[in-house]
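Teaching assistant here, posting this on the class forum so everyone can see the example we discussed in section. The complex has two components, and the goal was to see what a joint structure prediction looks like when all of them are supplied at once.
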Amino acid sequence: MSQPSDNRLRFKLYKEMLRIRIVEETIAGYYGEQEMRCPVHLSIGQEAAEAGACAALEQRDYVLSGHRSHGHYLAKGGNLKAMMAEIYGKATGCAGGKGGSMHLVDLDAGFLGAAPIVGSTIPIAAGVAFAAQMRNEDRVVMVFLGDGATETGVFFESINFASLKNLPIVFLVENNFYSVYSPMNVRQKGDHRIVDIARAHGMEAHQADGNDLECVHQLCTQAVTKARGGGGPSLLELITYRWREHCGPGYDNDIGYRTEAEFLSWKERDPVAAYERKLIANGVGTQPEIDRIAKDLKLEVEEAVSFAKQSPWPDLDTLSTQVYAN
Amino acid sequence: MDRQLKFSEAILEATDQAMGRDPSVYIVGLGVPDPKGIFGTTLGLMKKYGAARVQDMPLSENAMTGVALGSALVGMRPIITHQRVDFALVAMEQMVNQAAKWHYMFGGKAKVPMVVRMIIGRGWGQGPQHSQSLQAWFAHVPGLKVVMPTTAHDAKGLLAAAIEDNNPVIFIEHRWLHNISDTVPEEYYTVPLGKARTMCEGSDVTIVGTSYMALESLRAAKLLGEAGISAEVIDLRTIRPWDVETVLTSVRKTGRLVVADTAGVAFGVSAEIVATVLEHEFASVKAAPIRIGLPDHPCPTSPALANSYYPRAGRIVLEVRRMMGKEPITDALPLTSDQKLDIPDASFTGPF
């Protein structure tokens, strides 16, 4: 497997991944203050899949996502302050406080939206790709979904339609083994079911280690390049693991649906730490450089939190507006 | 100037003209390009506009509604068709959770200009799953608009307006209206959403009708007129937003309200209209309002049963007379011996 072509890209990918980690850890840190009054689904542990995938896209390309969308929004270039303000329910939030953590949007960045009804944004993303194809636009769509979403009817329907129409879309499945607390073995039969579904519909599909940043980036670049060239859709299943509880800032390894040992085995495979070691070992970066990046990112994120906290609440006049578009 | 067109032809003409005017308009639905062309409403479009803008689709109503939504987000104006309301129900998730919410939940950043056409079946054994009239379901959801044209003129103008609208519009056609003709201008025009139409003026009672029941209301008004009762008939045309002011103004004049809806009475559009009128004009009302609609059970298939399922003009006449303290009459709408009640007229020979 060839490596990303230059060290600048390696650093960019690493920084993006680390930034997601720091944002999510910061949210977890502040959540206890009870000022972020909406559910949050943190993606700590899954950053390589998110950063690696979005880095394969151009700004004009589109991304849609589901409930665990912070990393996708950030990696696609979504405005951090607007996201933080949205989670705090403020007027300056990306949806003016009407959406919260589960409904991030940044049109300038090509992040068209996220919605937490599992599976629902899959056909919507296919529709965005359908429009790009009808208008002969040079745009690729990437939709993020989880393993649970591959059990929905619209997943099958969308895979069929995308394959039928040869749409410029990448279905990016982050398989973290759990749909809330329900493990794979009560939901799906077999280890390669997800890629097999895509293949059965005539779609190219690959399963890969979602914690291997360079592997993710390379695979996604291939899929995006193929879609852009008229080669049609792909499905990529990236195996990864969510560290924190399904919803909220804490850990839930003690409640009985998974074990602490399982979590620790995945923590050993921390994508951020692994890539950091790799950068240093290969002489791409030094520890002080990496520490400085982390420090700068923490400052940026703290600044976003301050911005969110200091921002005004949405005006009550907006409560009943924007129900219908003019 | 006085060209007659069938309702179905008016739908086709509105679609054709909208597609001709705006390259972002496209139509997709099961059977759209097939030889029957959705009861004639899509015939010839494929030949004129090509397969890219006139599409058949996999039998995936929910995903295809999402596809329409997604394309609308980036500037297309899709029309998606369902040959029955019942078939559209598997797409409720995309219509209610998604299409209706995207503008609001993203703080106004997303727009979903799309039209979802669906058809209410009736008669010829349509039965429990080909006949439902569920406008109240959609009207209950903020973010959706719901349109039910009655005349060919309005079918054309309201469909054009629905396509121009920047919101998801549920466009419900009654199968028994498709073959009814009236004067339809050849040029492109719109009929504004949210405006009712007074079909005939009267002073004793206001009858608000939806879709096909507006025609039954008009027939009832004629019969009532012959008996000296002056009925004003309002064709609601749009269910959401509905024209509250036109209805209130009429009830202020007549003091009596009957609502005839194509759907079930319980929890329905008729309940909403009656409640709103009583909230605003209680003092003007001289008699308890009456709701006329379907009974509280599914539609049976056998004509022997289904003939008693649907209220007709005679029932409206009966209820109005009762409301006005007149003698009940049993022959309000005499039937000829060979009249079939499971078809709109003799031209309809089934099966769909």
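For the discussion questions: Residues 7-21 of chain B form the longest helix (15 residues). The first strand of chain B starts at residue 4 and ends at 6. Think about how each of these relates to the inputs above.
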